[in-house]
Every structure is written in C-alpha cells, then in structure tokens.
TrEMBL record, chain A:
It comes from the Bacteria. It comes from Sphaerisporangium rufum. The gene is fabF_1. Residues 9-24 have a biased composition (Basic residues). PANTHER family: 3-OXOACYL-[ACYL-CARRIER-PROTEIN] SYNTHASE, MITOCHONDRIAL, POLYKETIDE SYNTHASE-RELATED. One of its GO terms (molecular function) is 3-oxoacyl-[acyl-carrier-protein] synthase activity. Belongs to the thiolase-like superfamily. Beta-ketoacyl-ACP synthases family. This is Beta-ACP synthase. GO terms for cellular component: cytosol. Transmembrane segments: none annotated.
From TrEMBL, chain B:
GO terms for biological process: fatty acid biosynthetic process. The keyword Transferase applies. Signal peptide: none annotated. The keyword Transcription regulation does not apply. Belongs to the thiolase-like superfamily. Beta-ketoacyl-ACP synthases family. Coiled coil: none annotated. One of its GO terms (molecular function) is 3-oxoacyl-[acyl-carrier-protein] synthase activity. This is Actinorhodin polyketide putative beta-ketoacyl synthase 2. SMART domains: PKS_KS. PROSITE patterns: KS3_2 (PS52004). Residues 5-408 form the Ketosynthase family 3 (KS3) domain. Keywords: Acyltransferase, Transferase.
Automatic annotation (TrEMBL), chain C:
Residues 3-81 form the Carrier domain. The keyword Phosphoprotein applies. This is Actinorhodin polyketide synthase acyl carrier protein. Transmembrane segments: none annotated. It comes from Sphaerisporangium rufum. SUPFAM superfamilies: ACP-like. The keyword Phosphoprotein applies. Pfam families: PP-binding. Keywords: Phosphopantetheine, Phosphoprotein.
Length: 448, 409, 83
C-alpha cells in the first residue's frame, strides 16, 4: 500500500476551502444566543424569568392530561405564525423543529455572522434532541391507526413529512437551511445530555478545523401523551398536580420527581479569531467539554457520582483550571432524589472542599426538564450569567434535603462575579456530560 | 492524520445483515451475489405498496440477547448488541481487562425503536396511560443502543449517538476517530436500524422514494436505466476502532485504517431550480484529509440511492473527482437494501473486507447501466485485484453527505 | 381468582421482565430479593403495573417500594384481594 504522505500537487483545488489550520490554538467562543423556553419566547424573556425566580410550570394544556399520573409540565407559549414561519414550514415541521428554528433565527441575528465572515461551507450544524419529532409521530399514528385500532396502519392517510418525523435528523436539516450552513451537520441524540453534547460536538468541529462556526444547540417538544405516559410508568415525573407552580423542587426534601418541559436553545459558536476579526460580541468561551458513561443502568444512578466527577475533572484539565476557579455550577438538578444526591456527590468528588463554597443552581426548578433541549438552554443561561454577573436561583427550594448540603442559591438570584461556569448534564443511558464556560478576554488566555 | 502510523485501526467487525448473520456468512453471500431481499415476513404487508425488504430472517433474538435485556430493548437494539458482541469477539478484546474510561461507544441511529414504540403507543391509545410499559422510556429513544452496549460491556468513556440517516455510520466512525485523539483507546462504533414494522414502513413510504416493485431481483437497481427507488432493510454493522498504539501493543490483527473523512450538508433546494449538492466537495475533502489522490483510490462504495436523479447526482460527483469510468464503483447494498443508520456502517465493514481479501464485491441486478452515469460499475460478479484504498460515500435524507477513505493497516 | 400464588408471580415476572440468566426461577425463590434474582427497580415497577391491571387492585407507590421479594409481592396482593 502507499502510505507516503507527500501532498498531491493538485491538492488545493479551486472552489475548495483552504487547507485546514492546525488544531493547536483554535479556540471557540459564543457569539449568538437564541432561546425558545417556557415562560417567554426569546432570550430577554428567558433571562428575565430566570433572574426573577419565576416558575413556568403549569397544568398541561397541549393535550388533555386526564388519567395520567403526572399532569403538569413547563410549556412554551409558542405560536409559529407569530415567529415568522411560513405555512409550508409549519406544515412540514414538528413542534420540536419549529422551536429549534425560531431559536436559531434569534441566535443568528444576535451573532450577526455574515457570509463574508463565515461562508456556508465553513458553518457546521450540531443539534441535540432526545426524542426528536415524537409529537408529530404520535399525532400521525393516531390518524393512520384510527386511534390505535389497527396494528396494520393505513398508508392511505400518510402525510409527506411522516418520514421526517421518524428520522430526527430532519430537525438538523431545517436548522441548517435556516442558517445556510453547508459544513458538517448532525443531530446528536444522547438522551438528556444531547443539548450539551451537541454544543460540545460543534466545539470539537471548530477546534479540529472542520468548521469555523457552528449553529449548535438543541430542541425537544416531548409534552405529548406517549412521552408523559412513559415517564409516568417509571414514576420519574412529579405527581404534584395540585400545585404545578411549585412542583419542580430540585434539592428540596419535598421533591417528588422532575417536571417535563419543552423548548430550544441555539448558540452560535465561532472560532475566536474569526469573531475578533469582525468585532463580534462574545458572550463566553467554551473552555472544556467531556462526557463519560456510568455503564451501570439505563435510568439508575449510583449515589457516588463518580463518572460525572470524572467528566468534570477532565474539563478542568482541558481548561487548565482549578476547582477554586469555578464561580458557579449550573446543575443538572432534575428534582429526582437519586439525581440530586448523585450530582451533589459528584461535585464534592471533583471539586473537594470548594464544592461547599461554590454556588450551585438548577434552572429546571423554573422551566422544567426539556430532555435533550435543556442542556443547551442551560448553557445559554450560563453564558448569560457570565455576561450579567448574575447567578439564577433554584426556585422552590425551601426545605433543603439534608443529604444535599451545598449552596444551591435558593429562590433568589444572586449578583456575583461570574467568570467561570461549570454546567453538567446527566441522562438515560448513563451518560454524564460536563462543560466549562469562561469569560472571554480579548488578550491572551489560560488555555490554548 | 498526517502520520499513517497514527491512523486509527479497525480491529473487529460484527455484521447483522439481511444476506448474512456474522461476517463470514455476509461476506461469502455478498461475493456470491446472494441477495437478502424478499417478501416482508415480520407482518402482513400485502396491503402496502411496498412488500419487499431486506430482513435479517436468520436472526433469533433469544439466541443472541439475554432474556432480561431482550424485553427492555427494540429489535434494532437486539441487532446492535449482537453486532457489537461479534465485533468485540472478532477483535479479541475483553472489555473487563481494558481501562474503563478509555472505552467509548458511538453509534449511528436513525429511527429508534419504532416497532417497540408502535406497540406501546397502541397500548396507550387503546387501553390507557397505565398500560404503557416501563421500558418504553429506554427502548424507543435513539440512544438506547449506545447506552445498552456501554452498560453491557462496562464502557465508561465518552458515548455518542449521531443521527444523519443513511450517512450516520460514517459520521459515527469519524466521531470515534476524534475520540481516539483525546484519550480514548477503543471505540465500539457503527450502527443498526430496524423499522420494518407497519408504522415504520408507512413512515418510510411517505418520501415516495421506495421501490414498489414486487420482484426482489428487480426492485433495487441503482445506476440502472430501470432504477425505481430503493428497498428498505434492517440490520447493520459494528466495528471496533482502536488507537494504533494500543492495537499494536496487543498484537491485534487490523482489517485496515481510517485515513480520511469529510462531511458536508447540501444547500436548501428551491422550487423550480435543479437541486445542487456538495457531494463532490465532500469526496475531495475526504481525499485531502487522507492525503490521498484520486488515482490512489482502488474502489468507491457508492451510496447508490436507487432514485435516478440521486444516482446521477452521485455519479456526477464521482466523475467530477475521478473522471468518467476512472475508478471501480460498487454498491453491494443491492443485496441488503438501504439500512439507514446501519447502511454506511455495513459499507465501511464491506470495504475493509474488500481490502483484506483483495476483491471488490458486485452490484447485483444491474443489467442496463444508465448512460447518464459515467461510472465503472462492478456488476454481477466480484472483481479481483488489490484494494489498498477504498472510498465510501454515504448520503442521508435531508442533505447529509459523508465520505470516508479506508486503507490497508 | 381467589388467591395469588408464587406461580402466578413467576408468570408475571417472566412475562413482563424476562428470565434472568443466573437463577432458576422454578426453584425456591420466594424469599430471594428481586435484586438477587436479577430484576432491577424498573422490572419491579413493571411487575406491579401488570399485577394492578390483571387483578384490578391499586398498588400505591409506597407499596411497590416494599415489595422486595416475590413472596412479599404475593403476600401484599393476597392481603389486598382478601382485605
């Protein structure tokens, strides 16, 4: 075989991008944010909700939840027509894709990236989703099966977009089209860590030279009967149906499960020098990203949190930061007993005594747990925390679980210097993800 | 990947394909031109416009998947777990003896546990919410196979799930390659798919791209004047990708190495304008990444969609890079159907077997090559000759393009 | 059905959660824990759901947590059936 590495003379063909730069030195910054979340559409409304400590959890309105164990959720008050989607787009797209496209538009506008700065072939699209277009799949199933009556569903009533509902990659397609992105594109579907993993994937593509920008984030719209029923079956969601506003209670002794949410967040990631050249506003820099798996159980967590701790340590190592440098931890904080104890142990394992002095909060207390989307929504919150030097609170935390003995920023947002943020995710399949965001400094930096 | 000695090695292959369960069975069937396409048997498809598919009919989950695990997973995951077991055995890897955080799992996924999901959603709507089983929450979602492989083998490194439809197998392997540069030493990668249940089939029908012919021998004819769409299939392949240093240290017998890869996305189609594709750019970028020139490629494993317009676009991309009739092109997936998340993974495995044995497997069924496709299609029978570098092309519905170059170890 | 037997329970267990690799379920399993038998918490939730449907008796969340062994499940069900 020929394993020589002489470069062919014809290597740099017209119309192809320049040979990619070396990996060393490529840093990744966030220059645009778009959020479609419960409690208000758009980043300003989202940040307002978080800093006010309001909760957006309520009785489900997207379908009649009578007969379900958990009948509450955090829903988006979202009408695609008021967000500029065309009738064709609305017909074609499942709600998850719609939420994602709306967030992507906001992020693109916010970043102000242009074709001159970053041509389409240098734009990657990395979108996370845990359950894809389940809502569309379920609705169409009801038609084709005549409400479940026929196992042999009737093909005559199929809609053309049905395959797009089954293959969730179509969500990435819609967002890539929105951004005119023609670089690498993928939907990342690692369950409830998909949002962070998708941003991490975009970060890696920019780092390794495969792209100069990434439209990275996640979307999920799981508030449909089949998804609510499947969490009912494993008693993972809160049955506090009489008091939905106070149902999501991470780290509180009286918690009884997570509250399902929906939404999307898209970040524009950019290679740092490209962003600096066009004088873009930089929210934060991604300084580290790692995932580990517990290889233990699809839904169960061991109380020691060791794999999450390993992921956290790895990100600190990548960023060349110490536990003492972390100013805020955005917790997974789903509000299940096993999660809250698992990650409290992980923080103590990874950060030692610094865990006790570092503020930790869970925004799921306010906007619920939107499965794959939440990781990117939380990353957006972290970038905003750095920008505004404000730590969003853990709402509803009135009676701390004695086994969760860290500073969880109960109920009220806190003004503080926030230069370095750790955000983590934990999900079905045993996946554990950690990401570090840092304030961007125009000169120099602590890692390369 | 400038230094060939640092290229990641593929040291194990596991195959669950419609025309063969296990690498040996699949490879000998493929070289013999034996097709796995036939009438759908998993359900009564008589009333559907598509009645032909590639089913892994030999597969009995009770023989391959422990009962406790089988009840909580879909058929798609059964096939994935089985292929992963085969690949690990083939590589001679005992996961228990491997550092836990250095083992990763990255699979492609495309439609999830559709059959399992259809059963549960039926229970929900006919009997009520409390009839939905606990395993719906972990069997249907796209991450089920990766998670179960990780748990079964104690792999605690970075895990990934990539959905780019039929391109997924290459994108997953490329992500696996990336992980090997950051501390992981071994990755189970690849993909499977299995949505041959009523709802899954009807969803696939909705694109209008499936072949509706009833003759399995004439139903899927990519690059033929008689091309009429594709036949769907189930199954796929898992591969063990290893860091070259650790593979050599344990005297592994690699099939080959990943030399290069690229992925792009097509521009949004506009009504009234012919679709444009970035496929040729993808191929060029992959060759560049491999530091390989077109003349060094001995075979191209085509995506071979089976829809005439798609085939012509692919053929044009190939001829743009290589010239007309300049490189052997093949598509043994005519014998399996398109396997979605499993498709490119199986092509990757097949390319490595072609390298190992110095033989290009055939594209069966094609009689009258479409003159608009100026490619040297390897038809009917295998073609002997050394295969040092193979290019695999994969395209996912909605605009995903991927290309990978594999080479001798 | 007047009483719920260990054999009924065996049928529920294998029907909805499969057969464990390492244990002979036909043996004396009544007082082994579900964990020792190879059934995790999800499996026990599934068994409880199927029992509720088959026998039409509600089993509250707390009671599921107390069903540590097949015999404990049988005893609980029989108390509900006679109570």
């Amino acid at each position: 075989m020929n394993t020589t590495t002489t470069r062919p003379a014809t290597r740099h063909r017209p119309g192809t991008p320049r040979p990619r730069p070396t990996r060393r030195g490529r840093r990744v910054v966030i220059t645009g944010i778009g959020v479609t979340a419960p409690g208000g559409i758009g980043t300003p409304a989202f940040w307002d909700l978080l800093t006010a400590g309001r909760t957006a959890t309520r009785t489900i309105t997207l379908f009649d939840p009578t007969g379900f164990r958990s009948r509450i959720a955090a829903e988006c008050d979202y009408d695609p027509t008021t967000h500029g989607l065309t009738p064709q787009q609305i017909r074609r797209m499942d709600r998850a894709a719609q939420l994602g496209v709306t967030a992507a538009r906001e992020a693109l506008t916010d970043s102000g990236i242009t074709h001159d700065a970053i041509p389409p072939e240098r734009r990657a699209t990395t979108i996370g989703s845990a359950v894809g277009c389940t809502m569309g799949l379920e609705q169409e199933y009801l038609v084709l099966s005549d409400r479940g009556r026929h196992w042999l569903v009737d093909p005559d009533y199929r809609v053309p977009q049905l395959y797009g509902y089954m293959a969730p990659s179509t969500i990435a397609t819609e967002i890539a089209w929105t951004a005119d992105a023609q670089g690498p594109a993928a939907l990342i579907s690692t369950g409830c860590t998909a949002g962070l993993d998708a941003i991490g994937h975009g970060y890696q593509l920019i780092r390794d030279g495969s792209a100069d920008a990434a439209i990275a984030g996640a979307t999920d719209a799981p508030i449909s009967p089949i998804t609510v029923a499947c969490f009912d079956a494993i008693k993972a969601t809160s049955p506090a149906n009489d008091d939905p506003q106070h149902a999501s209670r991470p780290f509180d002794l009286d918690r009884n499960g997570f509250v399902l949410g929906e939404g999307a967040a898209i970040l524009i990631l950019e290679e740092r020098t490209t962003a600096l050249r066009r004088d873009a506003h930089i929210y934060a820099e991604i300084a580290g990203f790692a995932t580990r798996s517990n290889a233990y159980h699809m839904t169960g967590l061991k109380p020691d949190g060791r794999e999450m701790a390993e992921a956290i340590r790895t990100t600190l190592h990548q960023a060349r930061l110490d536990p003492a440098d972390i100013h805020y931890i955005n917790a997974h904080g789903s509000g299940t007993r096993q999660n809250d104890r698992h990650e409290t142990a992980a923080f103590k394992d990874a950060l030692g005594h610094h865990a006790y002095t570092t503020p930790v909060s869970s925004i799921k207390s306010m906007i619920g747990h939107s499965l794959g989307a939440i990781g990117s929504i939380e990353a957006a919150a972290c970038a905003l925390a750095i920008t505004h030097n404000v730590i969003p609170p853990t709402a509803n935390l009135t009676t701390p679980d004695p086994e969760c003995d860290l500073d969880y920023v109960p109920r009220t947002a806190r003004t503080a210097t926030v230069d370095t943020v750790l955000t983590v995710g934990s999900g079905f399949g045993g996946f554990q993800t950690a990401m570090l965001l840092t304030r961007h400094h125009h000169r120099g930096g602590h890692h390369d | 990947m400038t230094d060939p000695t640092r290229r990641p090695l593929i040291t194990g292959i596991g195959i669950t394909a419609p025309n063969g369960l296990g690498t040996q069975a699949y490879w000998s069937a493929t070289l013999d031109g034996k097709s796995g396409l036939g009438r759908i048997t998993r359900f009564d498809a008589d009333r559907y416009p598509v009645r032909i598919a590639g089913e892994v009919t030999e597969f009995d989950d009770t023989e391959h998947v422990p009962s406790r695990l089988a009840v909580q997973t879909d058929h798609w995951t059964h096939l994935g777990l089985t292929a992963a077991d085969m690949a690990l055995r083939d590589a001679g890897i005992d996961p228990a003896a491997h550092p836990e955080y250095q083992m990763a799992v990255v699979t492609a996924s495309s439609s999830g546990g559709t059959e399992f999901g259809q059963r549960e959603i039926e229970k929900l709507w006919t009997r009520g919410p409390s009839y939905v089983g606990v395993y719906q929450s972990i069997a249907w979602f796209y991450a089920a196979t990766t998670g179960q492989i990780s748990i079964r083998h104690g792999m605690r490194g970075p895990c990934g799930v990539i959905c780019t439809e039929q391109a997924g197998g290459l994108d997953a392997a490329a992500h696996a390659r990336r992980l090997l540069t950051t501390g992981t030493t071994m990755v189970v990668t690849g993909g499977t798919d299995a949505s041959l249940c009523p709802y899954g089939l009807v969803a696939q029908l909705s694109t209008g791209l499936l072949s509706t012919r009833d003759d399995p021998e004439r139903a899927y004819l990519p690059f033929d004047t008689d091309a009429c769409g594709y036949v769907p299939g189930e199954g796929g392949a898992m591969l063990i990708l290893e860091h070259p240093a650790t593979a050599r240290a344990r005297d592994a017998h690699p099939y080959g190495a990943i030399a290069g890869y690229a992925a792009t996305f097509d521009p949004r189609p506009h009504p009234g304008h012919p679709p444009t594709t970035n496929l040729h750019r993808t191929i060029t970028l992959a060759l560049d990444d491999a530091r390989t020139t077109p003349d060094q490629i001995d075979v191209v494993f085509a995506d071979a969609h089976g829809h005439p317009a798609h085939d012509r676009a692919e053929a044009q991309a190939i001829t743009t890079v290589f010239g007309p009739h300049a490189v052997p092109v093949t598509a043994p997936k005519t014998m399996t159907g398109r396997l979605y998340a499993g498709g490119a993974a199986l092509d990757l495995a097949t390319a490595l077997l072609a390298i190992r044995d110095g033989v290009i497997p055939p594209t069966t069924g094609v009689r009258a090559a479409d003159p608009a496709c100026e490619i040297d299609l390897v038809r009917a029978t295998p073609r002997d000759g050394p295969v040092r570098n193979a290019l695999i092309i994969a395209r996912g519905h909605g605009g995903f393009n991927a290309a990978m170059v594999v080479t001798t170890p | 059905m007047t009483t719920f037997t260990l054999d009924d329970m065996r049928q529920i267990m294998t029907g909805c959660a499969g057969v464990p690799d390492s244990v002979d379920l036909t043996g004396d399993i009544g007082d082994l824990t579900f964990t020792d038998l190879g059934y995790d918490s999800l499996a026990v939730l599934e068994m409880a759901a199927r029992i509720q449907q088959r026998l039409d008796i509600p089993i509250p969340d707390d009671a599921v947590g107390e069903m540590k062994t097949p015999q404990a499940a049988v005893d609980y069900v029989n108390r509900r059936l006679t109570g």
